[in-house]
Amino acid sequence: MSSTIKILVVDDNPTILQLICQTLEKCGEVITASDGADALMKTLDAKPDLIISDYTMPVMDGRALFDKLRARKETQGIPFVFLASQKEIDDHLRMVLEGVEDYFVKPFFSRELAQQARRITARLLQQRMEKQGGGAGIKGKLTEISLIDWMQSLEQGRKTCALILRSGQEQAALYFSEGNCTHAVCGDLKGDPAVFKVLAWMDGDWEVDFQKNSAEHTTTMSTQGLMMEGLRIMDEANRDAG
C-alpha cells in the first residue's frame, strides 16, 4: 500500500509557493496551483489528500475555492489549511470551522507548517489503512513522518495497533492500546527506555499494523509523558554533546 500523500499548495506568489513546496517536499507528493480556479481544476483531476491555500488571490480567492470544494460530494471531505493575515482570519475565516484543519497567520514559520502537515499526513494515513482493511502493508520513512508525529496522531485518535520501526540494523516495536503506548521493545530494552531510544531515530523506516497488539504492559507513563520525557532526555544529551 502506498504511503504517499498528495498535497495541493495554492498561492499566487511564486516565491512563497516555492518556499512552501520546499518545506513540504518530505511530507508527500506536492502539487501546485497559482490561484483558486487553477486549484479547483487540479483538485478534480489529481484528487489531493490535503489542500494548503492562500486566502487572498486573483481570479478566485481561497474562501471561494473552499466553498466550491465543500459543495461537491467528491471533494467536501478534503482537509483544508488556510494561509492568511490575522485580519483576514478575524474578519472572514473565524466562522469557517467545518473542514478547516488549521489557519496559519502570515508571516509564518515554515517549520511550524511542516510539523502540522506531517501531523495531518499521519492521520490521513491512519484513515487510509482503516478504510482498506486496517492491516499491515503501509510503510514509510522516518524522514517523512517522525515517531513523534505518529505517537501524537495515534494518541489523539485513540488507536490500537503496533508501530514497527527499523533504523540501520536495529528494530523496535511500540504497541498502542486506545492511544496509550503500553509496551515497547528495542533489542534488550523494554518499556520506557526502549521508547526513549527510538525517539532519537531520525532515519529509518516505519510500518503500522492495526491488527496487531500486545498483552504486555511495560511502560510507566502516558503516551504524552513518554514523548515529553524522551524529548527532555534528547535535549540534555545534545547540550552535553555541545
Estimated radius of gyration: 19 Å
How many discrete structural domains? 2
- Subunit arrangement of the protein: single chain
CATH class bucket of the largest domain: Alpha Beta
Morphology = elongated
Low-confidence parts, pLDDT < 50 over ≥5 residues?
none
- What is the average per-residue confidence, as pLDDT, rounded to a whole number? 85
Here the CATH topology of the largest domain equals Rossmann fold
Tell me about the biggest sheet? 6 strands, antiparallel
Write the H/E string, N to C. Answer: EHEHEHEHEHEHEEEEHEH
Helix count equals 8
Kindly, what is the distance between the CA atoms of the first and last residues, rounded to a whole number of angstroms?
41 Å
- CATH architecture annotation name of the largest domain: 3-Layer(aba) Sandwich
Strand-residue fraction? 15-25%
The CATH superfamily of the largest domain is identified as Response regulator
Helix content: 40-55%
Description:
The chain has 242 residues and is of the alpha/beta class. It has two domains: 6-119, Response regulator (Rossmann fold), CATH 3.40.50; 133-241, no CATH class. The chain has helices at residues 14-24, 36-46, 62-70, 86-93, 110-131, 147-156, 192-198, 223-241; strands spanning 6-10, 29-33, 50-54, 80-84, 100-105, 138-141, 161-167, 170-177, 180-186, 189-190, 205-209. The strands form two sheets. The chain has a six-stranded antiparallel beta sheet. A hairpin with a 2-residue loop joins strand 7 (161-167) and strand 8 (170-177). Helix 1 (14-24) packs across helix 5 (110-131), helix 2 runs parallel beside helix 3 and helix 7 (192-198) crosses helix 8. It is elongated and about 60 Å long. The N and C termini lie far apart (41 Å). The mean pLDDT is 85.
